[in-house]
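Example record

One chain of 262 residues, shown exactly as stored in the release files.
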Amino acid sequence: MSGARTNTLAHLRGSIERIETHADTYAPDRAPLGHAEADAALHGGLAHGAVHEVFCEGRQSAAATGFIAGLARRVGAQRPLLWVRQDFAERETGALSMSGCQELGLDPRQLVTVRAPDVETALRTAADALACDALGAVVLETWGESKQFDLVASRKLTLVARGSGVTALLLRVAAVPTASTAETRWIVRAAHSPPGMPWGVWGAPILDAQLVRNRHGPNGHWIMEWKCDECLFREAPHSQPVAAAAADRPAAAPASAQRRAG
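Predicted structure tokens for this chain:
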């Protein structure tokens, strides 16, 4: 038994070494996002058979969920999507809405959700699922910091994803990025929608997407619009981030008071 374990460990180490040694020459298929500048930075789009991380603050979980759903739609096309969620993440943000997923362009009939009691189980479930090449993508959603998300776990997910060609999308809510083998890492927030007419207030999702890690290209920061009908990311109507209102300044004095003071 010890000999078999030693052989397995040596095989895994060799596979990891080949991944890291030939990372620069690895040329995976890519799924274009539709956003011209982002696709240029990504050399054509998001790499298939790789690990991609999306981080967000706890209060930005809805925006990040929409963003990763868009990524899953782009890389998975019409193939089944497996979404693994840590129990605590569901308690904090609620269950996924199938009608909401359909609005974003995902087919609920192709979506399977799995609830895991802890991060370790979620990681193991995601790794097993990535080995199934019938899937289009696997989303792994967890909440908060976790020591289980170390470099070893990241390497394992990368190894399995590359072997099967299935893309791993990690949604890390209320967590801080650490060392990993991820192909890309994003930080996502909700962005302001442009002003519109009262009858058109329900518009396309607008996202502030910051690419902070890109193994084979430059980083970037864009305001993206997810086009639900076309299932593509596009440049938002206003391409510059909108400044938040200052919270440490007193309210402006009425114009009449200013005239009296003058």
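Notes: Helices lie at 2-21, 36-41, 61-76, 87-93, 98-104, 119-130, 151-164, 255-261.
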